[in-house]
Design goal:
Structural class: mainly beta
Order of helices and strands: EEEEEEEEEEE
Distance between the termini: 37 Å
Strand content: over 45%
Shape: globular
Oligomer: single chain
Length: 123
């Protein structure tokens, strides 16, 4: 499984940004794809996740209502649409994949990780 995250950048508070996660190497019908983020000195934290087959999504309370996860089957790509960005959303964002876990916010349950993409939100 290979995951390639992209789309990070520098934006102002209140702006929107869309991250992409290109997935390859497997048929992902039984996978859950998660988005996580990490800032220096802090643990990696759950942002949201999507079940590849059901498209059911789950979000951390801190981003609920502002972030949306979706996927494009034809492109094998996941998206994290981030609206109303806040300075506290500044972090390196990672996409990760796990097979047959249902839903999980636990970092250790995801066995495949892409490289991170940096999102910086200025105030």
């Amino acid at each position: 499984v290979q995951l390639q995250a992209s789309g990070g950048g520098l934006v102002q508070a209140g702006d929107s940004l869309r991250l992409s996660c290109a997935a390859s190497g497997r048929t992902f019908s039984t996978y859950t794809i998660g988005w996580f983020r990490q800032t220096p000195g802090k643990e990696r934290e759950f942002v949201g996740a999507i079940s590849w087959s059901s498209r059911r999504t789950y979000y951390a309370d801190s981003v609920k209502g502002r972030f949306t996860i979706s996927r494009d089957n034809a492109k094998n790509t996941l998206y994290l649409q981030m609206n109303s960005l806040k300075p506290e959303d500044t972090a390196v964002y990672y996409c990760a994949a796990a097979n047959n876990i249902g839903f999980s916010m636990v970092v250790a349950r995801y066995g495949y990780w892409g490289q991170g993409t940096l999102v910086t939100v200025s105030s």
